[in-house]
Amino acid sequence: MISNRELFLQNTAQTSESPRLIEVERAEGIYLYGPEGQSYMDLVSGFNVSNIGHRHPKVLAAIQQQLDKFMHVTVYGEFVQAPQVQFATDLLSVLPNSFGSVYLTNSGAEAVEGSMKIAKKFTGRQEIIAAKEAYHGSTQGALSLIGNEDYRKAYAPLLPGISFIQYNHLPDLEKINDKTAAVVVEAIQGEAGVRVPDKAYMQALRNKCDETGTLLIFDEIQTGFGRTGKLFAFEHFDIVPDILMLAKGIGGGMPLGAFVARKEVMDVIKANPMLGHITTFGGHPVSCAAAKASLEVIQQEKLVEQVERKAALFRKELDIPQIKEIRGLGLMMCLQLENFEQVYVVSNYCADHGLIIDWYLHCETALRVAPPLTITEEEIKAACKIIREGIAKFC
Ligand code: PLP
Fold first, then answer.
1. Is the pTM of this model over 0.90?
2. Where, if anywhere, are coiled coils annotated (predicted)?
3. Ligand 1, from 133, 143, 221, 228: best to mutate by most atoms within 8 Å of Cβ?
4. Of the chain's two ends, which shows fewer C-beta atoms within 10 Å, N or C?
């Protein structure tokens, strides 16, 4: 019989020459299990998705209840679907009052696309500024905003009217002017290797956008839902963006994204022409039921409140000379090594010893560590022991 591994290589699209090929049969809490009974601690949360762990019982119950009522019934924005309405209402209740309207999408990239559209239409301007080294997704609009030129060039031509500023660099804010519809930035740059900006920079960026009538769009697709020690990372900077883009951890493991804005900004898609942004599956009712339950879990289990203590334990346990720097905020961390060879062998060593860690798309010299927020102190110590052993052996 042909194995699933062979069928994966044969029949499903391959996105690299060297996929990790870890086969997953089931997942629970912070663990993944393979078909031969192997277990792995998931220290990357399925790439910042499983903030509350895999298959949280409250999310499973909410999904089951919704499955018993209805799944897809119509395209987004026509019928009143309780899971969408209730989740949007809960989401607005944990955001500043300036946010008044939620558009639910299938993914992060779709949230990026919608945000760019409403910013252009609301301001009547055509230019968008993004940050060098940014990552915002793989669709053509999102790809137009990413900093890595190799990726942009390979799929050119992309969107016109886009220029780049250096992230966390005050002088570049001068490039924002009254022709700029929006500045799109990650609250913390993730795939660039977890670059945390200065609070003063973020506040100056907010001021510059206010001065020039430019909308400030924050990508919190990786940083949202407690990851950094606040429910949303913009809270660290004491500013509020005009548009907030969310996905990944939003759905408790189900596919969902959102962009959130002031009502008057969102309303531009209603007319001239009508149906300015539509989607068939965006805000799928089962995903929304999961998202509502997931947000409740984050609040009821006080997961955000535990992030700082857990992050401090990681930093203490990983305080070894071979790790040049631990960048990050909360449980969004990056362990800087010397080169990709070290990253590659250490992450393979970890996988062989039951621990999934990875690296960042545009920073291959550092290990990616972003565990479910539910990880316990004992699990942190066990995980760090394996990382230390791998580093001691190869670095
Ligand atoms: N923005 C950021 C910061 C991301 O990390 C990602 C995905 O990794 C995206 C956008 C795109 O999200 P999606 O993969 O759901 O389209």
1. yes
2. 290-317
3. 221
4. N
